[in-house]
Design brief:
This protein is of the alpha/beta class and about 400 residues long. The protein folds into two domains: about 250 residues, Type I PLP-dependent aspartate aminotransferase-like (Major domain) (Aspartate Aminotransferase, domain 2); about 140 residues, Aspartate Aminotransferase, domain 1. The protein contains 14 helices and twelve strands. The protein has a seven-stranded mixed beta sheet with strand order 1-7-6-5-4-2-3, with helices on both faces. β4, α7 and β5 form a beta-alpha-beta unit. α1 packs antiparallel against α3, α3 runs parallel beside α9 and α12 packs across α14. The longest helix has 21 residues. The termini are far apart. It binds ligand LCS.
Length: about 400
Amino acid sequence: MKEQKKPGVDTQCIHAGQHPDKLFGGVSVPIYQSSTFAFESAAVGAARFSGADDGYKYTRLGNPTTAALEECVAELEGGGKGLATASGMAAVSTTYLAFLGAGAHLVSSDAVYGPSRTLAEKELARFGVESTYVDTSNLDQVKKAIRPNTKVVYLETPGNPTLAISDIAACAKIAHNAGALLVVDNTFCSPVLQRPLDLGADVVLHSMTKYLNGHSDVVAGMLVTRSADLMGRMRRVLVQVGGTIDPHQAWLVLRGVKTLALRVRAAEESAMKLAADLEKHPAVAWVRYPGLKSHPQHALAKSQMSGFGSMISFELKGGVEAGRLLMDSVKLCVLAVSLGGVESLIQHPASMTHASMGPEARRAAGITDGLVRLSVGIETYEDLRADLWNALDQVGTAATASGNAQVGV
Ligand code: LCS
């Protein structure tokens, strides 16, 4: 038999899980905006609830539009099954609730999206779940954090907002040797740049609010695994907690995903140029971008990811005040949290996305008070650069006006 070549990522974005509709041939997957599904008879209804018939019953338990999105993202992640959720945090909480319980222990990256950490540290702790946060880009720290009751190792790579890169394959080995699962939040990369399941992760999760949807108009999440057992455990939790995605929201994400690969590549091209130029700007103390040679895990990023993404973190020499002035001075970049949209977004993690962690945890995780996070969009590169450089000039002028010889000090 002739071997079938696997479709390319752009093809998958457009066609995976998406077939012309059987009723009228609509090319776009229809939005099944229905909370419930009629049964032809009482016997059919009973068969659906017993599992003998896999037809739809009730949208919290499954919906055809949602199923198309789940198939699409699962295929992009290299196979397995997907489970769409109402938000990225619904995906995070589903993995915690499915795999952790009283007496269990979680090892997590210390630089994760603030609420992913706060949920475990503050809420799950009330139910007897312990958690330890370490720099997962340092494998010794991961090994040392493992305890006999560790059930989950949780990575965000690149980390939010430090962009620290953790070795997924090595962490999978450490987790599996300890009888734990490896969960990877792949939000910053999207499956276009990184496929954690291929590297040994058990579960991959996304805030689809970000790159997958890509248009800053939807909040949604996704879980993917190749294990039927793990999917069963997550699905049971999700449908009972009620964090199911709405079909219209699922359809919007399906539409966004069609251009995912194009958007990711375009944003990365600008991010690479901006990061390299920012590094040379006199007002900038340092820049973190996985594509720069100065990034501590640049070599790992090169081998583990198929591109460096479009998130840049940087610190101004003038610290917090200079960062505030920069954010108030940009005109094209939008001062807002979130990331992965078509528009460039700039924000201050210490007072915004990572405020809930508290100053000590932030310091330990390398999230400095002066750190500015930039999600590079797909605007015309020259416009983006001009906007940032105008704002940086104002930072420089303010520093000079306040009598400092060195910019921003
Ligand atoms: N995982 C990562 C890596 C995230 O960045 C976020 C949200 C989530 C999970 C949660 O997803 P959500 O429930 O919001 O869909 N990150 C945000 C950020 O960095 N700024 O605003 C939201």
